[in-house]
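note to self — DONT lose this again. spent like an hour looking for the file last time. sequence + predicted structure for the chain T wanted, 188 res
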Amino acid sequence: MIRIGIIGEIGSGKTYVAKSFGYPVFNADAEVNKIYSNNRKCFEKLNRKFPKYVKKFPIKKNQIKQILNKKNIKIISKIVHPYVRLSLKKFLRKNKNNKYVVLDIPLLLENQLDKKKDILVCIKTHKKKIFKRLKKRGGYEKKIIEILKSQQLNINKKFKVCDFIIENNSYRNNIFRQIKIIKKKLND
């Protein structure tokens, strides 16, 4: 199985590009939402650390937003990330017979979830385009975005380690064309 890791900045279009490959996708953000909705153990741990804010199960994103700062995000990550890793292991086991899988994990490199043989695809998007996309998302808060960005490696460092770069500044057809080129190179 070849793992294709999609990396880039918040709002660069990682999830859209990941789905566009047409292979099974592990979406870490979606997994976190499932964990907040379904994992009572995770709730109990977060409730013990933040009883004033994480009061009810299932956990709502607003509960987490209230406690987000640079210190607390590390505490939250230590609680939530082991469950995400477990979901990733299950996903990889389930898809072990597929030739390719796509990993849409915003902190793939930062949490050392990548492997040497992974194919890393970095999404390159203009800052103005990213800002526009983030504004379109529901509940855009500059403070929250800055805290999340603080957890990520500098985009230039990501460019240095990636195998391919996809420009995501124009039309969707352009993304499909770039993916087609990557797929051809992978299969050659």
